[in-house]
């Protein structure tokens, strides 16, 4: 992907990031050069066959991570954008399979009109559907296969905070929010590609 063409000052100290690495769910990564940081971020790009409406939103998150070279707090902004890209993807892929609530209150027995906005589905329900409805396991998540650990619990609620909890905390100004969440945007990338795996296969076959 293309990154902003900016000239960054040389850092006085390496950028330090705690992140999953091969065979370990948590490692300390050090980046001394902007070129190395750019390569690390670029490696988390989405498959180009993912629909542009989702891919471009996810790219915004990657750009915020990239700009964290000058201010590490931008990673937290990138996390929120990444999670909104995931929610968009899940609504697209599973929206017709997950019950939702009408966006306006209906009278008893009243059906939504054709001009009404589509039902609102909770992020939590969409995440659970990935596991319960679409068969996602840790074995289908490349980051988990490469690094170990587990992620499914963050979707179905057995591990806290869940991804839905993290999205809500970021969106609503959790005063106790602090350090970047290890592996979050990479996990989001893997989940989006899982949700679109059939779409990607069909596009590759054409």
Describe the structure.
The structure is a single chain. With 206 residues, the protein is mostly helical. 47% of the residues lie in helices and 7% in strands. The chain contains 9 helices and 2 strands; from the N terminus they run ββααααααααα. It has helices spanning 34-42, 52-67, 74-94, 123-132, 142-147, 153-156, 163-171, 184-195, 197-205; strands spanning 15-21, 24-31. It has a two-stranded antiparallel ribbon. A hairpin with a 2-residue loop joins strand 1 (15-21) and strand 2. Helix 2 packs antiparallel against helix 3. The radius of gyration is 18 Å and the shape is globular. The chain starts with 14 loop residues before the first strand and ends with a helix.
Layout of strands and helices, then pairs:
Elements: E1 15-21, E2 24-31, H1 34-42, H2 52-67, H3 74-94, H4 123-132, H5 142-147, H6 153-156, H7 163-171, H8 184-195, H9 197-205
Helix pairs in contact: 1-2, 2-3, 3-4, 3-7, 3-8
């Amino acid at each position: 992907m293309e990154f902003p063409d900016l000239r960054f000052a040389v850092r006085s100290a390496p950028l330090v990031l705690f992140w999953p690495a091969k065979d370990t769910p948590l490692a300390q990564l050090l980046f001394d050069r902007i070129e190395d940081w750019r390569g690390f971020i670029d490696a988390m790009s989405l498959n180009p066959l993912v629909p542009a409406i989702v891919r471009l939103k996810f790219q915004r998150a990657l750009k915020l991570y990239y700009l964290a070279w000058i201010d590490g707090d931008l990673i937290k902004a990138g996390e929120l954008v990444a999670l909104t890209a995931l929610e968009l993807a899940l609504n697209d892929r599973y929206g017709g399979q997950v019950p939702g609530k009408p966006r306006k209150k209906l009278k008893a027995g009243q059906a939504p009109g054709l001009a009404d906005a589509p039902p609102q589905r909770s992020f939590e329900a969409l995440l659970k559907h990935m596991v319960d409805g679409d068969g996602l396991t840790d074995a289908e998540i490349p980051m988990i296969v490469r690094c170990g650990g587990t992620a499914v619990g963050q979707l179905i609620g057995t591990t806290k905070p869940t991804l839905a909890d993290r999205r809500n905390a970021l969106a609503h100004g959790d005063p106790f929010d602090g350090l970047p969440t290890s592996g979050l945007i990479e996990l989001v990338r893997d989940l989006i590609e899982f949700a679109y795996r059939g779409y990607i296969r069909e596009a590759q076959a054409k």
